Amino acid sequence: MLRKLLSEGGDLPDHFGRDEVVVVLRDYYENLTDKVEIKTHKAATGS
Amino acid sequence: MSNLIPPHGGKGLTCCLLEGAELEAEKKKAAGLKQIPITPRAKGDLIMMGIGGFSPLTGFMTKADWKGVCDNYLIADGTFWPIPVTFDVSRADADAIKEGDEIALVDPQTNVVMATMKVTEKYEMSEDEKKYECEKVFMGEGTPSADEFWKIAKDDHPGVQMVMNQKEFNLAGPVKVLSEAEYPEKYKGIYQRPEESRKIFDDRGWKEVAALQLRNPMHRSHEYLAKIAVEVCDGVFIHSLVGNLKPGDIPADVRVKCIDVLVKNYFVEDKVVQGGYPLDMRYAGPREGLLHATFRQNYGCSRMIIGRDHAGVGDFYGMFEAQTIFDKIPAPEEPGKALLCTPLKIDWTFYCHKCDGMASLRTCPHGKEDRVLLDRKSTRLSLRHHAPEAPLRGR
After folding, report:
1. Which residues of A touch B153 (CB under 8 A)?
2. Are residues B199 and B76 in the same domain?
3. How far A31 CA lies from chain B's nearest CA (Å)?
4. Which residue, B105, B243, B111, is CA-closest to B175?
5. How far is Cα B255 from Cα B259, in angstroms, rounded to an integer?
6. Distance between CA B358 and CA B346 in Å, rounded?
7. Which helix (H) or strand (E) holds B291?
8. Cα Rg for chain B, rounded, in angstroms?
9. Is B137 helix (H, G, I), strand (E, B) or coil?
């Protein structure tokens, strides 16, 4: 879900992560050249 | 003299990775052996056997091991082990290999020989036996029946799909590991062997170490769990999966950077060690939680943090099934054979606006309208159903 939200430039829930962490993740997604469509699947996959 | 928990199995760290002249000689020998391609899962298993992460395992499981693990969480010699570690080959390859043969196990992505193996047993795995493994390993305790399980598991459970797609035969036998693949170079400073993490813990004078399992970016709930662990242990080992990734997964280096900024800004740095391990997910829910504890014991951790829905797969398991399973596993009496790493069980955690901070069901008296649930499943549910207990707020 996090990946889907970020890859689509969406808003994260408040207090999901520290601002410093969100900056790193946003930077990664903004500089991603090969976008992969993230599909939410019934199977969550770990912590 | 180390104060850390001993490795699992009572034999110290059993490392099958060859080095020096022995490695060179085995590589030469491997070039003349029958080459068998391996899966990413087997590659991770081999590296773990190489570096002692899967102590006391030194090879792929026999049929007796497989059956014992499925039925009773015990390999044939009576040592606790939670999940089958088997190696499958096609019927054609099995026909060309006889018991006693040595074979070379090759990573088809890189053509690197990862290991040699002396085949001590070759056994067929029927469809019924694969289904048996699935029901024993992947079926949650709340599932009403095997029929109900199969109605959804066949299409929706990635662990079940992995087992059912395995080839017709398994090969068992001891391995000699020849490579750690890309991990030492690609994840320098993060990828560690158990002997390395143990040395770090020893150098810090730690005795009780809690492991935090991560495969996604570290969010506030993970931070909270880690901080609870620091309160009750000497330190916390934030241990990320750096094994095979699926398209769309956030790469390990980005996740590591997230942990770095979090530790730098919000933790007492000498209470935290960050590391990575080379396995794939097995999607085994509660049993995977047991596997996490088993190999963390080898890395020197005496506690395994198990929160809500640890290693969860969709809705297949109860929210705390990965905690309660620790109370149900056998405890062999023979020294070393029981799992010694114990769970650090933590309740449902969330951010509470009224508490003005992170809290859990054990500490927060407020209503669900005040709570923000931060995990992926709850966020997904909140989007799907606009659930009031997990309000989304734009940044």
Report:
1. none
2. no
3. 12
4. B105
5. 6
6. 13
7. helix B285-299
8. 21
9. helix
Do the Cβ atoms of A2 and B309 come within 8 Å? no
Distance in angstroms (rounded) separating the CA atoms of residues B152 and B162: 15
Average pLDDT per block of 10 residues along chain B, 395 residues long: 96 98 98 97 97 98 98 98 98 97 97 98 98 96 92 92 96 98 94 98 98 91 96 97 80 92 95 95 94 98 95 89 97 96 94 94 93 59 36 28
* Same-domain status, B125 and B262: no
Residue type, B193: R
Asked if B393's CB is within 8 angstroms of A43's CB, the reply is: no
Question: b/e per residue, B319-332, with b = 16+ CB within 10 A?
Answer: ebbbbebbeebeeb
Which of A2, A7, A20 lies closest to B265 in CB terms? Answer: A20
* Same-domain check for residues B160 and B287: no
Backbone CA torsion sign across B27, B33, B35, B36: negative
Whether residue B393 is contained in a domain is answered as: no
Q: Give me the domain span that covers residue B280.
A: 183-349
* ipTM for the assembly: 0.80
Q: Is B215 a catalytic residue?
A: yes
In terms of DSSP bridges, do strands B357-360 and B342-345 run parallel, antiparallel, or are they unpaired?
unpaired
Contacts of B387 in chain A (CB under 8 A): none
Task: Report the C-alpha gap between B257 and B277 in whole angstroms.
Answer: 16
Counted domains in chain B: 3
For residue B38, which amino acid is it? I
Residue B69 inside a domain? The answer is yes
Residues B87 and B209 in one domain: no
Angle among Cα A13, A17, A21 to the nearest 5 degrees reads: 130
User: End of a domain among B123, B149, B177?
Assistant: B177
Long-range CB contacts (< 8 A, 24+ apart) of B153-156? B153/B316, B156/A42, B156/A43, B156/B314
Do the domain assignments include residue B81? yes
Dist. CA B220–CA B45, nearest whole Å: 31
> Do B203 and B107 share a domain, yes or no?
no
Decide which of B177, B203, B220 is a domain's last residue: B177
| B36 & B119 share domain | yes
Residue pLDDT, tens place only, B206-232: 999 999 999 888 989 999 999 999 999
Tokens for B292? 């996490």
In a shared domain, residues B205 and B236:
yes
Same domain, B61 and B77: yes
The answer to whether residue B394 is domain-embedded is: no
